[in-house]
Amino acid sequence: MLQKPRGTRDFLPDEMEARRSVEWRMREVGRRWGYREVCTPEFEDLELFTMRSGEGIIGEMYVFEDKGGRKLALRPEITAAVIRMYINEAKVAPKPLRWCYFADCFRYERPQKGRYRQFWQFGVELIGADSAMADAEIIMVASEMLTTAGVRFDLKVGHLALMRNLIADLEPADQRKVRAHLDKREFDSLRETLAAMGKPDLAQSLISLVECRTLKEALTITGDLPESKRIEQTLAALDAYGVQYSLNFGIARGLDYYTGIVFEAFADNLGAENQILGGGTYRLAHLFGGDDVASCGFAIGFDRVMVSLGESSRPRQETIVGIVCTDEGRARALEVSRAFRSAGIRAEMDLMERGLGAQLAHASKTADFAVVIGKRETESGEVTLKNLKTGEQKSLDLAAAIAEVGAHGAR
């Protein structure tokens, strides 16, 4: 028996309804902020991703050649593709561009809880705005999306200028080693590495920066920076809007990519693999032959969001009506089912040519109400409405039956 590929999943109706419910809550937040949806191809030229991340990423990707010998890759993330689209299609459009997307990505890595080879991202990109308010807006949108989705999370905000200032004298390879230690909070290893580089005092400065919880405290370690005023303005805007966050100037991941503000969100119930959102300011378009446009964005790991929400993501079950009829009542039953559906109520008819008793038995397993239509109901114009949970049964005209079922669904 054939099985699904490793690292992929099948979604049955209950799970798809839960996913769509959360997805549309996020979409609605994006809409209210003015972010409009875009879509890019599922595969792109391999160079689009290696140009940004280097050849080393190829081992983590699904790479192939098409029949023309072109090297292509299933997208491992979406930001690069969105910026490529901006250069191709919209670089003369009025700025800023507020775009969002929801799409699947592909990475060849070891599957684990909340981490798959095919996974979904909900992302937002703000292109062409270079200001403290732009930085603040993208963080506000991120926070509001997670809150509206129902996720319990901790939001961490930092700025890379402070760490860059401290490690500016190190060689690029040494900077990468230092950042790796900081990212994993390996402070003992950090001290050893910097001691071997002849910079033992730098270790304590970096560790103190990681532990800072106010901008003022952090600037006493790094000294005043040209970016200080913009950071202050960004944080003031977040405070004015009521965003709940804490400062973390030790965010080291993405130092080669992000240019200023950075932020991450962590679910409080996912264990070690608990990061569900990451973002910041960046400049990527010039790498792909475009202008050096300022951008800011984030991506939400949608699958981890769903794991975090668990059963709370299940939408309220809609009321289901089973239309039960005899052969004589079938034409009338079709009219009745159409009327229920037109009223927004889910109505299902028997397709198995069962008898009346068997239809009722099946409806009792799958529906909340049964609407029975036989010879008497066809002649009278009424329907027999049976509450399958309580057993109560009554004859009603069609409008009254629809109203009663609708009132039940509204509770």
List keywords for this structure.
BirA Bifunctional Protein, domain 2; 411 residues; 8-stranded mixed beta sheet; 5-stranded mixed beta sheet; Rossmann fold; alpha+beta; 16 strands
Quick structural gist:
The protein is of the alpha+beta class and 411 residues long. It is built from 15 helices and 16 strands. The two termini are 44 Å apart.
Estimated radius of gyration: 28 Å
Got a strand count? 16
Average pLDDT reading = 93
Unreliable stretches (pLDDT < 50, length at least 5) are none
CATH topology of the largest domain: BirA Bifunctional Protein, domain 2
> How much helicity do the residues have?
40-55%
Going by CATH, the architecture of the largest domain would be 2-Layer Sandwich
Characterization of this structure:
This protein is α+β, with helices and mostly antiparallel strands. It folds into three domains: 11-147 and 268-303, 2-Layer Sandwich (BirA Bifunctional Protein, domain 2), CATH 3.30.930.10; 153-260, Bira Bifunctional Protein, Domain 2 (BirA Bifunctional Protein, domain 2, 2-Layer Sandwich); 320-410, Anticodon-binding domain (Rossmann fold). It is 42% helix and 22% strand. The protein contains 15 helices and 16 strands. The protein has helices at residues 13-33, 46-53, 79-90, 132-149, 160-167, 172-183, 187-196, 200-211, 215-222, 228-241, 302-309, 330-342, 356-366, 375-380, 398-410; strands spanning 36-37, 43-45, 63-65, 71-74, 97-106, 118-127, 153-159, 246-247, 258-267, 275-282, 295-301, 320-325, 346-349, 369-373, 382-387, 393-397. The chain has an eight-stranded mixed sheet with strand order 1-5-6-11-10-9-7-8. Strands 13-12-14-15-16 form a five-stranded mixed sheet, with helices on both faces. Strand 3 and strand 4 form a beta hairpin. Helix 1 (13-33) runs antiparallel to helix 4 (132-149) and helix 4 packs parallel to helix 10 (228-241).
